[in-house]
Write a structure and sequence with these properties.
Elements: E1 2-11, E2 14-20, E3 25-29, H1 36-48, E4 67-76, E5 79-88, E6 91-97, E7 100-102, E8 113-116, H2 128-142, H3 144-168, H4 177-213, E9 220-225, H5 237-247, H6 249-255, E10 266-271, E11 274-275, H7 276-279, H8 282-304, E12 309-313, H9 321-331, E13 337-341, E14 354-359, E15 362-364
Helix pairs in contact: 2-3, 2-8, 3-4, 3-6, 4-5, 4-8
Length: about 375
C-alpha cells in the first residue's frame, strides 16, 4: 500500500496544495500549528471516512470558504486507485472512488492506514472505549462485512436504548424489547466471535513485538474480556446474550441503557502476568502500546498481503530513545510512513527519509 500523491483544496490551512511522496519515509518538520498534522489528517480521512481530530466535517473547510476537497492517489497490490472527498458547508460530503460515487460505508478498506498519535499512549490506561475502537478499526479495514455488522449493531443498540427510556417513562411496553433483544443477541455474538479470532492472532504478534522491544525480558498477553458473560462460553454465545438481556431487563429499563453486549467488552493486557492498566509502569504501558501498534501493522499485512500506510503524528517526542530506535528499525525500508515532528533531532543522522519543512501552510523540501 503506497500513497503517491495528495491534493488539497481549501482543506484546513491549505489553499491549494499538491504533494508527491516517496514510497519510504516522509517527514514533516515544523512548529505547532503550522499544518503538519493536517497532511496526516487528510490521508487518514481518505482511508477511514472521518477525522481523528474532530467529528464535524465543516471544521475541515478553510476559514471563510464554502467547500473543500481531498484527492489521494495510491497503489494497492500494484494497482493504481484514487479517492476524492468533497466537502460543502450546505451539503453532505461526496466520496468518489476511481471516478465512481460511493457511500461512506463503502470507503473502509480501500486504503489501509494505521495512525499512531500521542493520544494512543492512553490506549492501555485509558477507558475501554479506546481499546474497543482500536480493535474495531483494525478488523474493519480487513473485513468490510465486519464494519457493516458493527454499524448495524450500533443502530440496534441505539434504538433499544431509546425504547428502554420510553418504557421507563411508561410510554411503551416492556414486551417490545423482545424483537430488539433477538437482533442484538444474534449480531452481537457474531461481532464477538470475529473479535476473538482477531485477538488470537493479534496477541501472538503483539507478544513477538514486545519481546523484541524488551530484549526477551517480558511477555505480553492480550485477552478479550466479555463483560457480564462467562468467559468460558464459546459456543451458543447468542443464547447466552438472550438470557442475559432478559435477566437484566429491569436493570436496563431503570438505567435507560443496555448493560451487556460487545459495546461493553474490553481488552486486558498483562506483562508477565501483571495487569498493565492497573500495575504497569508508564514505561511498560508505552512499550505495550508500541507493541500493539506494530502488531497492528503485521496483522493487516497478514490479512491483505501488504503493509498499510503508517501515520506517526508527533509521537517521536513522546517515546524515549530506545523505543524510537525499535520503531525506526521496524519501519525503515519496509513501510511507507508519514511522520510529523517539531525537531529533526528525533531522527538518525544518516539518510533516513524525505524531509519537508512546514510553515504557515507552505511546505518546502
Amino acid at each position: 500500500m503506497k500513497v503517491n500523491k495528495l491534493i488539497l483544496r481549501n482543506f484546513r490551512n491549505y489553499i491549494n496544495l499538491t504533494l508527491t511522496f516517496t514510497h519510504g519515509i516522509n517527514i514533516f518538520i515544523g512548529d505547532n500549528g503550522q499544518g503538519k498534522t493536517n497532511i496526516l489528517e487528510a490521508i487518514y480521512y481518505a482511508a477511514m471516512g472521518h477525522s481523528h481530530r474532530t467529528n464535524t466535517d465543516t471544521e475541515l473547510i478553510r476559514w471563510q470558504q464554502d467547500s473543500a476537497s481531498i484527492s489521494i492517489f495510491f497503489s494497492r497490490l500494484s494497482i493504481e486507485n484514487s479517492i476524492v472527498l468533497k466537502f460543502n458547508t450546505n451539503q453532505k460530503k461526496e466520496i468518489i472512488n476511481n471516478n465512481y460515487t460511493i457511500k461512506p460505508k463503502e470507503l473502509i478498506g480501500l486504503l489501509n492506514v494505521v495512525l499512531f498519535s500521542p493520544e494512543d499512549l492512553m490506549l492501555i490506561k485509558g477507558m475501554p472505549t479506546m481499546r474497543r475502537r482500536f480493535l474495531d478499526m483494525e478488523i474493519s479495514q480487513i473485513s468490510p462485512a465486519y464494519y457493516q455488522q458493527l454499524l448495524k449493531y450500533n443502530r440496534i443498540l441505539a434504538q433499544r436504548n431509546t425504547l428502554l427510556k420510553k418504557i421507563r417513562e411508561h410510554t411503551e411496553k416492556a414486551e417490545m424489547l423482545d424483537a430488539w433483544d433477538e437482533q442484538l443477541a444474534t449480531i452481537g455474538s457474531q461481532i464477538v466471535k470475529k473479535r476473538q479470532i482477531a485477538i488470537k492472532k493479534l496477541a501472538m504478534l503483539a507478544n513477538l513485538m514486545h519481546r523484541k522491544i524488551t530484549d526477551n525480558k517480558e511477555n505480553l498477553t492480550v485477552i478479550y474480556h466479555k463483560h457480564g458473560i462467562d468467559e468460558n462460553i464459546i459456543e451458543n454465545l447468542a443464547d447466552e446474550y438472550r438470557k442475559k438481556l432478559v435477566e437484566l431487563r429491569q436493570h436496563d429499563i431503570y438505567r435507560g441503557s443496555t448493560s451487556v453486549g460487545p459495546h461493553r467488552d474490553d481488552l486486558i493486557l498483562s506483562v508477565n502476568g501483571i495487569n498493565l492498566r492497573t500495575f504497569g509502569s508508564q514505561g511498560q504501558q508505552r512499550t505495550g502500546v508500541l507493541a500493539l501498534k506494530l502488531s497492528e501493522l503485521e496483522f493487516i499485512k497478514s490479512e491483505t498481503g501488504e503493509y498499510p500506510v503508517l501515520l506517526l503524528d508527533d509521537v517521536m517526542s513522546e517515546l524515549d530513545a530506545s523505543r524510537r530506535e525499535h520503531l525506526i528499525a521496524f519501519i525503515q525500508d519496509r513501510i511507507q510512513t508519514f511522520i510529523t515532528a517539531t525537531e529533526k533531532k528525533y531522527f538518525p543522522d544518516n539518510k533516513f527519509g524525505e524531509f519537508h519543512k512546514v510553515a504557515n501552510g507552505i511546505i518546502m523540501e
